[in-house]
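User: Predict the full complex structure for these chains.
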Amino acid sequence: MATFHYNPHISVDCVIFGFDDEKINILLIKRKQIDKKVYALPGDLVKKGEDLDVAAARILSELTGLSNVYQEQFKTFGSPDRIQDPADIEWLKSIREHPEARVITVGYNAIIKTNDFEIHASSFAEEVMWHPIEKPQKLAFDHNDIANTGWAMLREKIKREPIVAFNLLPKKFTLRQLQTLYEAIVGNELDKRNFRKRMLRNKFIVPLDEKEQNVSHKPAQYFAFDKEIYKEDFAKDQWFLF
Amino acid sequence: MATFHYNPHISVDCVIFGFDDEKINILLIKRKQIDKKVYALPGDLVKKGEDLDVAAARILSELTGLSNVYQEQFKTFGSPDRIQDPADIEWLKSIREHPEARVITVGYNAIIKTNDFEIHASSFAEEVMWHPIEKPQKLAFDHNDIANTGWAMLREKIKREPIVAFNLLPKKFTLRQLQTLYEAIVGNELDKRNFRKRMLRNKFIVPLDEKEQNVSHKPAQYFAFDKEIYKEDFAKDQWFLF
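Assistant: Here is the predicted structure of the two-chain assembly.
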């Protein structure tokens, strides 16, 4: 296999989360590996002369068909014993020119609406799927650690920058939809009354003069996320917000 | 030079800030390079089989004498054209076995009280110094970018976790000392009245029954940072703080 134009020491792993209007999923691939079913994050070596951000976009697209996803670097993983599982070693031998090389991997993460993107497996990915984050799944190498860290850091980012969450909602949404999203992010149920009370303190959540139509339950009011108000609120000098 | 036990592709750069009760400084080294005065961040190659965090501690200590500093990884820099300056290339040729190798560098940052630590140059550092961040200084490689990013990310961290700033103050401090620190971090003067009003909203800043002594001006009251109150305030579920 002609891998001579890859840098054998540096890889990128993509930790991509997708909200499907109900729950959060993580994008996984199944490797082409005879007799074995090994799930992994989409990830591969960086090319010689290739920038890290460029590599992250290329690798994600090559393996999963996803493109135009804004990925952010969150952490680099460089433990010398990242590769220990015999199945991983066997796979590296089948695909890499320097399977024994120590590989340091740069983690990138993102969260998107699953419905906005199509995925299809290619390159060494036999399958690609959205896997619910609440279901544990053993992954190759240290990918469980990378995935968990990527999720923890994304949650921290959402706390600081709620716009990341609101981007996952339709333009007009009900408070039930908003709560479903936040419950998926937080990972447990939230008290409805308390949630609504506290959420509506935020002036960037604007009530619309419109209700749900053709629903069997009592039609709920729609709300919208106001980017301008949000920006004003968050553009303030935040040094003293604590 | 016996550099065979180094991984020629991965380095660590340490972006260490120090508060000297007046201003914020960055820790720089001057390289041993004949005829040339090149300032750089303390940084070097990672050893084969060495963990990144361990490498960061070792490299900082070897070049600057600083140890027991809690450094945090903040970003990895992997632009393929990181090395362009002829002075840098010349220096790499004099010290590295593979001076042409593409090196990806992992940035670590920290902020400490300069008075708590002694520094002394060793290894390939000819000098080591605390350099005021307000004075621009051209650095080797892409170290200006690394230093600026490290500072920006540390400031963001201080916004989220003010304890990082309060750790830089003496156990009892005046509001003037607190303001000096924050002005150094923010990079400009702050309105005294407004600063005090907003700061004292934080219950973790506790007034002490004690004033300055032997000062020529009107003695100011001392305050203390209460870690327990701070923890309670910040341990709350912060999902709805916005």
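The CA atoms of residues 138 and 144 of chain A lie 7 Å apart.
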